[in-house]
Amino acid sequence: MQATPQSPANGVFDTPQAFGPVSRALHWIMAALLLWQFCSAFSHFFLEDTAVESFFWGGHYLVGFSIFVLALLRGAWGLLNLSRRPPHVAGALGKAAVAGQTLMYVLMIGVPSLALLRAWGGTRGFELLGVQIFAPQTNEIEWTGALAGQFHGELGWVLFAAIAGHIAMAFLHPKFGGENVLPRMGVGS
């Protein structure tokens, strides 16, 4: 049986033709969580003190931590599959794709890391689903809050822009001399 973009012949691993089911599941779960997170940020910024903000913002920490964990897992899975993955196109388009994807991974790990740093240095601590991640500090470690306060939100918006670019380029890729890459991740035919 020959591998097609919709059904890799080797089970769970990626192939040069398409991403495998594990890569696809991680991609789409993270896409859904990132969409939720951006709705959370938008509602917090534009709809403060509304039911919409309350609905989305209530899960901001859980979703952010989930994105952090999944980004680490996805990065490890990607490294494990590095020699099997579909190749990038040659030239400037391929280099831009690598740079954009690298930026997204750095931000998907970095933005929540800043929030975790703030929680570690704060007097409230950090508990998730009843499990204490960080105990509250007796005295706040001010630099942790200042660093996170200065960069967490701004880098979150940079991540949003990078993801918007990623989505746009996935659809525009064929128009710039590349192949249709959407079927590799299970979109289209």
Sheet with most strands: strand arrangement? 1-2
Q: Residue ranges: pLDDT <50 for 5 or more in a row?
A: 1-8
Tell me, briefly, the overall form: elongated
Radius of gyration: 19 Å
What's the story with the biggest beta sheet?
A: 2 strands, antiparallel
Q: Number of helical runs?
A: 5
Strand/helix succession = HHHHEEH
Structural class: mainly alpha
**Roughly what is the average pLDDT, rounded to an integer?**
89
Helical coverage, percent range: 55-70%
Quaternary structure: single chain
Beta strand count = 2
Proportion of β residues?
A: under 5%
Our measurement of the CA-to-CA distance between the termini, rounded to an integer number of angstroms, reads 18 Å
Verbal overview:
A two-stranded antiparallel sheet has the order 1-2. A hairpin with a 2-residue loop joins strand 1 and strand 2 (131-134). Helix 1 (21-46) runs antiparallel to helix 2 (51-57), helix 1 runs antiparallel to helix 3 and helix 3 packs across helix 4. The two termini are 18 Å apart. It is mostly helical. It is built from five helices and two strands; from the N terminus they run ααααββα. Helices cover 61% and strands 4% of the residues. Mean pLDDT is 89; it is low at 1-8. It has helices at 21-46, 51-57, 60-80, 91-121, 142-172, and strands at residues 126-128, 131-134.
